[in-house]
Amino acid sequence: METPAGAVRGLRGAAGERYRAIPYAAAPVGADRFAPPRPHAGWDGVRDGTRPSPTAPQPARDFGVLDMTPYFGPGWVRGEEYLTVDVRTPAADGAARPVMVFVHGGGFVTGSTRAALYDGGAFARDGVVLVTLNYRLGVPGFLDLDGAPANRGLLDVLAALRWVRDTITSFGGDPDEVTLVGQSAGATLVCALLATPEAKGLFRRAIVQSGSGTGAFTPEQARRVGLAAAGALGVEPTAEAFARIPDERFVEIIPALAGLDLRTATATDPLVGLSPFSLVLPEQPADSLGNGPADVALLIGTNTEEGHLYLVPQGLFGSSTIADAEATAARSHSDPRAVVAALADSRPGATPGDLRSAALGDALFGAGTARMVEARTRLAAGSTHVYRFGYRSTAVGGRLGAAHTVELPFVFDVADDPRLHGPAGLLGPDAAPADLAAGMHGAWVAFARTGDPGWAAYDPATRTVRTFD
């Protein structure tokens, strides 16, 4: 199959065709790790698109008794050329099908196109071209350094969207019908792109799954992380100094950066200590949407027990106290006792673990999602649809619940994958309800086709929210 950069060989199966590890930018090596993405030079002959790409340098992530490999993928698979996309399509036949571009999560430090959850066969089966992408993570992707552009991982996503604009017709996709989708950190990147002038014209619709429109660091917070990273490496916080350091060292210092106190006189830590990396922006995306592509339709929502992922598998949920809940709230509020008291009033019978999880989930995703909904409703009335995901996974002895990431198997219609079940599986030992996967996946497909997922748009008067449970 021919693309503007050269010919690619893929695989054909029951769900359509799959092309893997196609470069959308040049390999980020040496000093280029801290530069904007450069165009790929293309290739001669036929490129093998049947095998997965290397991944961005990243540490291993441990979620206690829960196996999160289907979400994170295999971790760091070494290789220079990892700024690549995978494409799932019904057929590379020149047709004009709707396109979904998916940006993975992972706290800005982990994740890749190799994750089993992002297979995408169900989208191709249902007539949608799915593009998944890798982007720079951690130090190369998001550390703020003198002499380097900020938010290099975000610049990578922009480069991938330009690749889609210029290339997706070769894969049977319509460049004028692109839906940009992100989950977790990827969803926060989507929020930022909704406020980015350079993103205008690159996508027509957007889906934000458990992200935040208020998840960016201030320049002061980013500088604090940069100084800590430079101190751990024994160099100056400049792109020139960091360019001489191998990727292995960048991965090694991430644990030393975890848990930095990023609270300042003017800002709380939007990631409540769970990651030392995020976007760095002078203004939060929810407050600067007028700068971006305002004509984009938006589907946005969260899970009802987001914080459970960070407490239940690690054995912290049942042992939590009110003091623990207040300490969590203190990372994002000036009066944590009042916050926890309000949460308790709204949740009769809630345990300290429930309150700690609620405080964590609201700080990470809930408050920033609400701000995005409010801002979008003012800016583009009638074009925002809101959902809430409430299906409770029976993992970890039935306690995981509607935690962060649990919606993904239903969106991708892979909830029956054996890797998601069993003693350590994300969905637990019980079979997942097939009607939930059909309904949620179907809504995402409908939104990609028409901008209407099947329920009324949100407005301040009716506050329509579709619940999946």
Keywords:
alpha/beta, globular, 30% helix, 469 residues, Rossmann fold, single chain, 10-stranded mixed beta sheet
Q: Give the N-terminus to C-terminus distance in angstroms.
A: 42 Å
Instruction: Assign the CATH superfamily.
Output: Alpha/Beta hydrolase fold, catalytic domain
| Cα Rg | 21 Å
N to C succession of SSEs: EEEEEHEEHEHHEHEHHHHEHHHEHHHE
Mean pLDDT: 97
Helix content: 25-40%
Provide the domain count. Answer: 1
How many strands, what sense, and barrel or not for the largest sheet? 10 strands, mixed
CATH class placement? Alpha Beta
**CATH topology, anyone?**
Rossmann fold
Shape: globular
Q: What's the CATH architecture name?
A: 3-Layer(aba) Sandwich
Helices, by number, come to: 15
Would you tell me the structural class of the helices and strands? Answer: alpha/beta
Spatial strand order of the main sheet: 3-4-6-8-7-9-10-11-12-13
Verbal overview:
Strands 3-4-6-8-7-9-10-11-12-13 form a 10-stranded mixed beta sheet, with helices on both faces. A 3-stranded mixed beta sheet has the order 1-2-5, with no helix packed on it. Strand 3 (11-13) and strand 4 form a beta hairpin. The radius of gyration is 21 Å and the shape is globular. It has one domain (2-215, 283-468): Alpha/Beta hydrolase fold, catalytic domain (Rossmann fold, 3-Layer(aba) Sandwich). The two termini are 42 Å apart. The longest helix has 28 residues, at 352-379. Helices cover 30% and strands 15% of the residues. Helix 10 (322-330) crosses helix 11 and helix 11 packs across helix 12. The protein has helices at 69-72, 121-125, 138-142, 152-167, 185-193, 219-233, 239-242, 247-252, 254-257, 322-330, 336-346, 352-379, 395-398, 408-411, 434-450, and strands spanning 2-3, 6-9, 11-13, 16-23, 46-48, 84-89, 97-103, 129-133, 173-183, 205-209, 297-303, 384-389, 465-468. With 469 residues, it is an alpha/beta fold.
